[in-house]
Amino acid sequence: MVRLTLAQQLTASLVEQIGNGTYREGDRLPSLRECMRLFGHSKNTVINAYEALASQGLVEARHGQGFFVRQGATSHSEADEPQPYARAMDTVWLMRQQFVREPSHSPLGEGFPPVDWLMDMRLDKFTRQIMRTGVNTLFRYGNRLGNASLRQHLAQKLASYSISASPRQIVTTHGANHALDLIIRRFIAHGDAVLVEDPGYYPLFGKLQLQGAQMLSVPRLADGPDLQVLEQHLRTHTPKLFFIQSVGHNPTGSDISPSKAHRLVQLAQQYNFILVDDDALADFKPASAIKVSALDQLQRSLYVGSFSKSVSAALRVGFIAGSKDIIDELGDLKMLLHTSSSEFCERVVDVILTEGHFLRHLIRLQERLKTATSIGLQMLDEIGAQVLCRPEQSLYLWARFAHIDDAKQLTRELQPKGFMIAPGHIFSPEQSSINPWTRLNVAYLNDPLLKAVLKD
């Protein structure tokens, strides 16, 4: 077998993305420096890859601007439809771009709160406490369902959301993404129909593509999913799961209305599908915020939680709550794939939840978020932007700007001025479609320079 050089591998990846529309005609490819940071390649490797694309007639170099996809480069036949692995790699590319931080750029499109919002957690104090007590257990695998004490605290946390679950109905995971992966592996086979929100959480789309699932898009409105479209899908397909975010929806920041939440539970019972309630931003919202899993009491729903955004993404602690039978199955699957989750990380989170300090941290976090949301909405109003909804507190706002039909155009215009946004097309299962919306992190909207730039 001939081994491809790094430049050839990069060229092949970009050819695939141009062919399937991830990069459309007229789109600018990442700059040489951006591509070097994304993949850890040398400058010569990236230059060789871009020159190879140019020699194939797929891109053209514009002096002082970069490399752009040429007209006609994105046309391809249905016979060239990428396989599931290749389609999932498009999402990996997007994730790499999202996770790279340019120190000189304002991270408007970032999915996390600022680090200084989380610094009062003093993780160093909690880790030292773990090392002083029961250190011997840190050298062995943990329980397949997760640390018992942590699951007890998670049951109490769920009770504050009006969700009744025993510790035996909870399995811990390496964050919410691992939780979603376990659920997909357990319930979805190649070709199965799955309901997803559009716009929605784009790493989920990559996981479903990798599994070969058939994604059925349900538009996300200001008050939750479009039930009319949902019912049309239910009458013509037999989906096994509907992945939904009840509150703090990523990317729109919207919350589901009580009437829609109740109707969703009824439809799940009527059409025999499971609601996967991804609540990774629960700590940013009041405990009283309505959730479909609370209405359903985990009968036809699974609740997914995480501490990545409210405590630390580095700890990688999440969990799934559901019926005892399903949790047993997911626990076995977790053991087969990963043996166990991190006993050390779970004990750190367990100690954090034990301390009254965590509640004070959440109060401060939500107060900061409420202030930032108000300021962000005011700024967007002043420049004439349109927002999908006006939440009292949300890490994200979903906005579109006057005279912008494709948010990728706005991305290209803002990047040289020091601002990185998350254009709307990446949050759709059809990532090649034109989308005028963009996700904005409210923590970074209070910026006079940004306001001046967007007004122009």
From TrEMBL:
Keywords: DNA-binding, Pyridoxal phosphate, Transcription, Transcription regulation. CDD domains: AAT_like, WHTH_GntR. The keyword DNA-binding applies. One of its GO terms (molecular function) is DNA-binding transcription factor activity. Residues 4-72 form the HTH gntR-type domain. SUPFAM superfamilies: PLP-dependent transferases, Winged helix' DNA-binding domain. Transmembrane segments: none annotated. InterPro entries: Aminotransferase_I/II_large, HTH_trans_reg/aminotransferase, PyrdxlP-dep_Trfase, PyrdxlP-dep_Trfase_major, PyrdxlP-dep_Trfase_small, Tscrpt_reg_HTH_GntR, WH-like_DNA-bd_sf, WH_DNA-bd_sf. The keyword S-adenosyl-L-methionine does not apply. In the C-terminal section; belongs to the class-I pyridoxal-phosphate-dependent aminotransferase family. PANTHER family: HTH-TYPE TRANSCRIPTIONAL REGULATORY PROTEIN GABR, TRANSCRIPTIONAL REGULATORY PROTEIN. This is GntR family transcriptional regulator. It comes from Pseudomonas endophytica.
